[in-house]
Specification:
Length: 209
């Protein structure tokens, strides 16, 4: 692929999914392009009416410039959530997103808006849980039974620029938790559910290599 072709593609392109530092192997084929972006945003948890921070982190992807398909990784730093049960009992917990599979997606390099569709997959892990200020033991293995699938797409009519980035988001469902000790029933009463949203701002694109 010539430099002229690369520049022409870069001007059109747009990329990526939702959500930290990825390690990828050096591009093995001429059509592979390594990319890195800064990423930061929030996620609203519908069942607890609370918002948690997502990032700041680095999103790294490996893009096939012929097809627009890409894979990547976005490890997310831990955060802390606070919410109230029945309106007045405070609950706090550390929240960790553990990557279950690489991010996969596609950028439509034919469409003038260059929309991105992608999917991330994480286990959600809870620890250091406090109810009404009192510590409760959930153990080191309290997490969702199954990976949580999170879409990270450009909004309808939106676009994604390879260099300046763009906004990615989606709606997802949190399933039941396991291995949370005596807190398992309470966590499964409070946290799982649909209607959770993710919004991430992806910026400062860099071409790797």
């Amino acid at each position: 692929m010539t430099m002229k072709t690369t520049r022409r593609w870069v001007r059109r392109a747009a990329t990526i999914s939702a959500a930290a530092a990825l390690t990828i192997a050096p591009a093995a084929a001429a059509n592979a392009l390594g990319l890195e972006h800064d990423a930061e945003g929030t996620s609203y948890i519908n069942s607890t009416d609370s918002t948690i921070n997502v990032g700041p982190t680095t999103l790294t992807t490996n893009l096939d410039v012929n097809t627009g398909d890409f894979t990547g990784h976005m490890p997310l730093p831990g955060t802390r959530t606070k919410f109230e049960v029945i309106g007045f009992i405070p609950v706090e917990a550390d929240v960790t997103f553990v990557e279950a599979a690489p991010i996969t997606g596609r950028i439509d390099i034919v469409n003038n808006n260059t929309p991105v569709t992608s999917t991330a997959s994480y286990y959600i892990k809870l620890s250091n849980i406090k109810i009404a200020g009192f510590p409760t033991f959930a153990g080191p293995f309290c997490r969702t039974k199954d990976p949580v699938t999170i879409p990270a797409n450009t909004p309808a009519g939106g676009n994604f620029n390879l260099i300046t980035g763009g906004t990615l988001g989606g709606t997802y469902t949190i399933g039941d938790f396991q291995h949370c000790g005596l807190n398992t029933w309470l966590i499964n009463l409070l946290v799982p559910g649909s209607g959770n949203t993710l919004n991430i701002n992806v910026t400062n694109g860099r071409i790797l290599g």
